[in-house]
Amino acid sequence: MGVSDNRTGAQTRGRGRRAWSQVRDDVIGAAALLLADGGPAAVDFSSVSAASGVSRVTLRKHWDSPAALALDAYVASVGVDMPIRDTGDLRADLAAVMSAFVETMRDPRHRRAAAQLIGAAQLDPAMAASFSDHYFGPRRHRLVALLRLGRMRGQLRDDVEPEIVIDLLWGAMYQRILLPHLVGTLDEAAARALLDITLHGAAPTRPAVPTSTEEGQPS
């Protein structure tokens, strides 16, 4: 069964059932609204079915759990792609990515959903794997590649691990999303300060060039 048992209206337009891509868009849209309004707990198959007109049988066929559907809805809402571009200026490139993240998390609905989904993933191995495969993993992979390019250009020390830089930057930003007493403190100024301090610590060190007071004699 591909759509709701109610076979009237939009569900039977044209010559038959809608394409799965259209049905999926309706499901994700309905789940995203429920997630924004009530958090992951509000995304259950019955509620999504009622809001989207897609049967619970179909929902269970394509999503292992309501939590997995909630995660898909979240990813669709905030977007998988980040403005990761290698312009040759590592600081500017990282600043653009962090700014986009800050802007997304400025919306309390996205911020709340992120915190609740991360919490739920601690108890749901399948959801944790999906989070890694479809959200954190792709983003982290692209950031690692960007940082490696910066390191190759000498913008980071040779011994700096890109993964550690990511942990320092995004770990600090997520802390301001997850810890109750810090919620709402993630802004552009905080992101700039994090970036400046992190890159200062990771900057290449240039050996001092000896100076001399007499030709051939170091000072």
Automatic annotation (TrEMBL):
Source taxon at top rank: Bacteria
Domain Tetracyclin repressor-like C-terminal: 85-196
InterPro entries, per database record: Homeodomain-like_sf (IPR009057), HTH-type_TetR-like_transc_reg (IPR050109), Tet_transcr_reg_TetR-rel_C_sf (IPR036271), TetR_C (IPR011075)
Entry's Gene Ontology molecular function annotations: DNA-binding transcription factor activity; transcription cis-regulatory region binding
Keyword Transmembrane helix recorded: no
Key words, A-Z: DNA-binding, Transcription, Transcription regulation
Protein name: TetR family transcriptional regulator
